Amino acid sequence: MQDSKSGSSARGTAEPKPSPYLTRDQIERSPSRAFFLKKANGDVELAREKERTARTTTCAFMQESGIKLLLPQLSIATAIVFFHRFYARMSYETYDRVTVATTCLFLASKVEESPKKLKDVVIETYKAHHKVDKAPDVESKEFFDLKERVLVCERILLQVLGFDLSVEHAYRPLLAYVKSIKGSKDLAQIAWNFINDSLRTTICLQYPPRCLAAAGVHLASKYLATHVTKDFKLPDNPQHGGKWFLSFETTEETIQDISEQILELYMSGNQPVVGPNGGPGILSAASLSLMTDNMVQAREKAAVAAAAAVHSEPPACAEAPTPAPCAGAPPPTEQGEECANGEAKPSANSTSPSRRGAQESAVGAPTSDRKRAPEREGARLEGETENMPDAKRSRSSDP
C-alpha cells in the first residue's frame, strides 16, 4: 500500500521535460569529439577542426547524393539532422560515416514521404563517394553487401535516435515571416541559402528552428545591405514590442551566436561551401569580409546610441506629476529594447500571415547546390497548410 501511495505521489509530481537541444559543452564532450581528440594527441583545436571537416564533407556528400536521387530539400535536410543526432551520441571510430550517411538518406526519404528504393540509394551514394560513373553490378556480391550494410545500420540508427523521427526545419517560419512583412524574393532566397549552409554545422542540435530562421533573415538582411540596397533594414513590428526578432520568440544574443557560427563556416580553414558541380558559395572571401565589417560597424553604432541614451534625461518623464511608464526603468540597452518589453510579452499569435500565394523565385545572388529555391518546392508547403502559421511556429516543410 505504501508503495502504491508513493507511486501515485511520484506520478502526480510533474518533472521538467529535458531539453531536446544540446549545449556547446555537451557537443564538445561527445563521443565523436573524444575520438578526434585521441587522434590529435590531446590537441583540442586540431580535434575540433578534424571533426568540423568530417561533418562538412559528409554533409556535402549527402547533399550531392540527395540531389542525384531527386529528393526534395526537406528530405535531405532531415537526413542531415539524423546524421548530426547520431554522431552526437556515437563515435566515428565505431561506425563508418559514409554508411551512416547513406542510411540517413534512405530513412529520411521514407520519413518525409519521398521514398526511394534501396538499390537507387546505394547506387547514387556509391558513385558520389567514389567519384565514379558506374556502381557495382546489382547482381554482384559487393552490391548485395552494400545493401545489407545499410539495412543493418538502419536498425542501429533507429535505436540511437530512440525512434524519434520528428524533425522540424527553419524553412516554414522563414517563409511565414517574409510573407508577413511582404519581404522581397531576394530576402527569402538568400535566407534560405544561409539555412541550408547551417546544416553543415551543429546548430540544429543547439537551437530550435525558429531561432535559426531568425538568424537566416538577419544574415540575409546584412547581405542585401552590403550588396544590393544600402541601409537595408528589417521593419520593426509594433505588435511585438517594436523589435522584428520577437516574431520568432528569440533574442538578439541567440541570433548573434547562430550568425557567428554560420559565418565561421565560411571563415574556417575549410574552403567555402561548394556544390557538387563546383558552384561558388553564397559568400566569396571579399563579400564575407565586407559583410562582416558592416555588421561590426552596425553594432558599434548601436553601442554609441545606447551610451548617448543613458546620459540623456527625457524631460517629459522628469516633469510629469505621475511617473511615466518608463520612469525608473533601465535605459535602452544596446539592442534598443523598450521598457514595455519587461511588462508584457507579445502575443503568440500576433503575426499570422495568410496562406502563401504566388511562389517565390530564385534571385541573382551567387548560390550553389543549396539553392533548392522556394519556388521549386513551394507547392508542397502550400498544399500542406491551409493557414500559414505564425513566424515563430516551425513545423518542417519544403517552401
Description:
This protein is mainly α. The protein is built from 16 helices and no strands. Helix 12 packs across helix 13 and helix 12 packs across helix 14. The longest helix has 27 residues. It is globular and about 70 Å long. The N and C termini lie far apart (about 55 Å). The N terminus and C terminus are likely disordered. GO terms for molecular function: cyclin-dependent protein serine/threonine kinase regulator activity. Pfam families: Cyclin_N (PF00134), CycT2-like_C (PF21797).
Rg calculated over all Cα atoms: 24 Å
SS-derived structural category = mainly alpha
Indicate the multimeric state: single chain
Pattern of helices and strands: HHHHHHHHHHHHHHHH
Q: Indicate the percent of residues in helices.
A: 55-70%
| Main beta sheet | none
How are the secondary structure elements laid out?
Blueprint: H1 2-12, H2 24-28, H3 31-39, H4 44-68, H5 73-89, H6 97-111, H7 118-130, H8 141-160, H9 171-180, H10 185-198, H11 203-206, H12 209-227, H13 252-267, H14 285-311, H15 315-319, H16 374-384
Helix pairs in contact: 3-4, 4-5, 4-6, 4-7, 5-6, 6-7, 6-8, 9-10, 9-12, 10-12, 12-13, 12-14
